[in-house]
Design brief:
The protein is α+β, with helices and mostly antiparallel strands and 858 residues long. The chain contains 36 helices and 30 strands. The strands form seven sheets. Strands 1, 2, 3, 28, 29 and 30 form a six-stranded antiparallel beta sheet that branches. Strands 4-5-6-7 form a four-stranded antiparallel beta sheet, with no helix packed on it. Strands 8-9-10-11 form a four-stranded antiparallel beta sheet. InterPro entries: VPS16 (IPR016534), Vps16_C (IPR006925), Vps16_C_sf (IPR038132), Vps16_N (IPR006926), WD40_repeat_dom_sf (IPR036322). It is a peripheral membrane protein. Residues 528-835 form the Vps16 C-terminal domain.
């Protein structure tokens, strides 16, 4: 009897059964769909209702001001707002994929609302063409819209995320001949077209045009006539005649046409072949057309809903009130003033179980459970009959349970599956558990207070993640949290959204008390972003609460920027320094640098060693003047002196700093300033003296460059300056530098000897060697000659070397082995030098003759 009662509700269309269970009794009151514009979201989404301003309606104890009301699918009011927008009549209204309500008025202005009837700023526009010509019709699809203007212009927005309107090519006849007006529009979504852009189908006169982004093509339907001789070369598309209404199938493969003579023609989009051609009882166009899944087409006239399939007689449903058809992926929701129904094809698994007279394994298994409950032996008999197909029967019962909206029937089918599973060893046990989990979720969201009547196929297409997102957007946080826990999903999104909503909804709650409430829930989820919640609190002008929340954020990378945004620079600097992250510290430094006065900024970073050092490192490269102010404010005068000294060196790199350039004077002044600052501290006496001598040297070098007209002195060392003066023959200047900087005689002899050797003035070198006894002997003269590769000149001075080791080494350097050996033999160094020479001159026999005496002496 159960099977009979279930199947009695079905309708047969050819060989397919359809059912239309009632999902909800609508909870709204005084809502007449015929007086309102209605927009229903797919996947069991919300319903937007607003009084239709294109109709003259009688007001019943209601305000003349129109209200935009948003209900859930059970008719429970979620939110409402007064509609008071300019721009003319409301032309079109639809929900986007993310459940944003899109409203388009006559002048092309787009108003957007969320599910709480809150206007989303800013308002957008369909463009200049729509503003000038007015919008007369809108066709929406998932996340886009096409508008038709009074001038026959098509304007498209392909993605509501970007909101970029684009003008489509002109349709032949619309703009040229004002007498022609499009009779119908339909849209083929971008994901189903070859070009990847939206295709707009426009019926004009006897023609149908396919309009894409950069092309317009005529859409023709080809089918041979019954009498081919009569219309042998005639295009069948012309025989269809004017099209009064058309829609595209959900998968974009079929186009449904309602012609002027009352025929329903379904055409395959690619092959242009006709799949359905049915003559309706009325030639008047239906008020609504919709696909029921991919199987049949629904047509609605007043009080009559007709379902037409490829074969067989149509099925009629009669209503005494207006209805709205809401296409879904697996059926159509039928919304009326009093109820919401779901028309769908009966799933194969359900049909196999409940069809009258069914003897399928699933039907026998379901019947076996009934016998088992009545303790009848017939249960065992049924199981024996289907033992070979028991796995198939169990699967069918599970699948049928998933497609049911009635909870009692779900339980019965799942009990039958569990009963059969006990006798089926090779069946996956998790299959029943998985279906039970899914159904618990679906039954929870189908509750009228939630009002999301998803089928199991819709749920799988929508995904649990999106479902939870829609629940939290509707402020059903508790249910979203329980589902997340039940499905082992991340709870962070739910808790964070709840926290933000709680802050918004609690303007009068004290910060400390609200913080306690928030932490109680936020601590349920590890790793949750307190910074994101604190940001929302700051946006709600709860800065103190934001500061209290951000204290609990464990990630410095999120904590520090937020502290800066709410004005907690001191805390931000502490947290950034504690993290040790140099990027974060620099972020805080630059922020405070821009916001605070210099002295206040200096005081903040002075106590933070890492922050101070990073600031100094940066300022040394880019902000010298500011760094000087910092050092002066902190009493580090010597650091200012070092900066001045460095600036003088940097200035010296400028090629204009020589040849009497005006830059010469500032360099000297900088060094003198540095000397004065160094002199103020006892610890930097050496630096003060060095700076003084540096300034003195620069002056002398500058004078030398001016007198010689050669830019070769400035920034050279004292040694180089003396050497250059001697090379240029300016002995007086060299002696002056020697005297000014108290150059020792030893260094003087070295410098002059090498300078004279450089210019190969051997006579002057010899004269210089005879002026008085050199303080270091004749070694400087020997080395200068050897470096200049003048052996003959070196021989003048080598015999005068008093140190035998030095004499032997000098002879060895110019290749005189015998003299080197004699000197080494006479040297009192224990034969070390002689042994070294033997290795150096290994081919020379002279050292072998000295070997025996040397060994004897040792």
């Amino acid at each position: 009897m159960t099977n009979v009662s279930v199947a009695a509700e079905w309708q047969l269309l050819y060989d397919r059964y359809y059912r239309k269970p009632e999902i909800y009794q609508m909870r709204w009151k005084h809502v007449d769909l015929s007086r309102n514009k209605v927009a229903c979201a797919s996947f069991g989404g919300p319903i937007a209702v607003i009084r239709d301003d294109s109709k003259i309606v009688q007001l019943y104890a209601e305000s003349a001001l129109r209200k935009l009301r948003i209900f859930n699918s059970a008719g429970l009011l979620l939110s409402e707002t007064i509609w008071k927008h300019p721009g003319g009549r409301l032309i079109g209204m639809s929900w986007s994929d993310d459940q944003t309500l899109i409203c388009i008025v006559q002048d092309g202005t787009i108003y957007r609302y969320n599910i709480h009837a809150e206007l989303i700023e800013p308002n957008m526009s369909m463009g200049k063409e729509c503003f000038e010509q007015n919008v007369v019709e809108c066709v929406f699809w998932g996340n886009g819209v096409v508008c038709l203007t009074e001038g026959g212009q098509l304007v498209c927005i392909s993605d509501f995320e970007t909101m970029k309107p684009s003008k489509l090519p002109d349709v032949p006849g619309l703009t040229e001949d004002d007498m022609l007006q499009p009779t119908s529009l339909a849209v083929r979504e971008p994901k189903y077209t070859m070009s990847g852009t939206v295709e707009v189908l426009v019926a004009v006169g006897d023609e149908i045009f396919g309009v894409e982004e950069d092309s317009v093509q005529t859409f023709r339907v080809d089918e041979p006539s019954v009498n081919e001789s009569d219309v042998q070369d005639t295009d069948y598309g012309n025989l269809i005649g004017p099209v009064q209404k058309m829609i595209v199938s959900p998968n974009g493969k079929f186009l449904t046409l309602f012609t002027h003579d009352g025929r329903i023609v379904v055409v395959e989009m690619e092959t242009k072949q006709i799949a359905i051609d049915y003559s309706c009882e009325s030639a008047l166009p239906p008020q609504q057309m919709a696909w029921c899944g991919m199987d049949t087409v629904l047509l609605y006239w007043d009080e009559d809903l007709t379902m037409v399939g490829p074969l067989g007689d149509p099925v009629h449903y009669f209503y005494d009130e207006p209805v709205i058809l809401i296409p879904e992926c697996d059926g159509v929701r039928i919304l009326s003033n009093t109820s919401l129904e779901f028309l769908q094809r009966v799933p194969d698994s359900t049909e196999s179980i409940f069809r009258i007279g069914s003897t399928s394994p699933a039907a026998l298994l379901y019947d076996a459970l009934d016998h088992f409950d009545r303790r009848s032996a017939k249960a065992d008999e049924n199981l024996r009959l289907i033992r070979s197909s028991l796995s198939e029967a169990v699967e069918s019962c599970i699948d049928a349970a998933g497609h049911e909206f009635d909870v009692t029937r779900q339980r019965a089918l799942l009990r039958a599956a569990s009963y059969g599973q006990a006798f089926c060893s090779n069946f996956q046990r998790e299959r029943v558990q998985e279906t039970c989990r899914t159904l618990r979720v679906l039954n929870a969201v189908r509750d009228p207070d939630i009002g999301i009547p998803l089928s199991i196929r819709q749920y799988k297409l929508l995904t649990p993640v999106v479902l939870i997102s829609r629940l939290i957007n509707s402020n059903h946080h508790l249910l979203a949290l329980r589902i997340s826990e039940y499905l082992d999903m991340n709870k962070e999104v739910v808790i964070m959204h709840w926290a933000c909503v709680k802050i918004t909804a609690s303007p009068s709650t004290p910060d400390a008390h609200l913080l306690e409430i928030l932490l109680d829930k936020l601590q349920l989820c590890r790793g949750i972003s307190y910074a994101a919640v604190a940001t929302h609190a700051d946006n709600c002008n709860r800065r103190k609460l934001a500061a209290m929340l951000v204290e609990h954020e464990p990630r410095s990378t999120k904590q520090v920027p937020l502290l800066l945004s709410i004005g907690e620079e001191d805390t931000a600097l502490v947290k950034a320094t504690e993290s040790g992250d140099t990027d974060l510290i620099y972020l805080v430094i630059f922020h405070i640098w821009q916001k605070r006065p210099p002295l206040e900024f200096f005081a903040m970073i002075q106590g933070r060693v890492l922050a101070r050092d990073l600031f100094v490192a940066y300022a040394r490269c880019h902000k010298h003047e500011f760094l000087k102010d910092f050092f002066l404010s902190t009493g580090q005068i010597h650091e200012v002196a070092f900066l001045l000294w460095k600036e003088s060196w940097d200035m010296g790199k400028n090629p204009m700093a020589s040849k009497g350039s005006p830059l010469y004077g500032p360099r000297i002044k900088l060094i003198e300033k540095a000397r004065n600052l160094f002199s103020q501290t006892k610890e930097h006496t050496f630096e003060s003296k060095a700076a003084e001598e540096h300034a003195k040297l620069l002056k002398i070098q500058h004078e030398l460059e001016v007198s010689t007209k050669q830019a070769i002195f400035v920034d050279s060392s004292i040694n180089d300056t003396i050497r250059t003066c001697i090379v240029l023959g300016n002995n007086r200047a060299a002696i002056k530098v020697k005297t000014e900087f108290k150059v020792s005689d030893k260094r003087w002899y070295f410098l002059k000897a090498f300078a004279l050797a450089t210019i190969k003035d051997w006579a002057a070198l010899e004269k210089f060697s005879k002026e008085k006894r050199p303080p270091m002997g004749f070694r400087p003269f020997v080395e200068a000659c050897i470096d200049a590769d003048e052996k003959a000149e070196a021989l003048k001075y080598i015999p005068k070397l008093s140190d035998l080791v030095e004499r032997g080494e000098a002879y060895a350097r110019i290749g005189m082995a015998k003299e080197a050996a004699d000197a080494a033999a006479q040297a009192n160094d224990g034969g070390e030098l002689l042994e070294r020479f033997r290795k150096t001159f290994s081919q020379n026999a002279i050292f072998d003759t000295l070997k025996i005496p040397f060994q004897g002496a040792s």
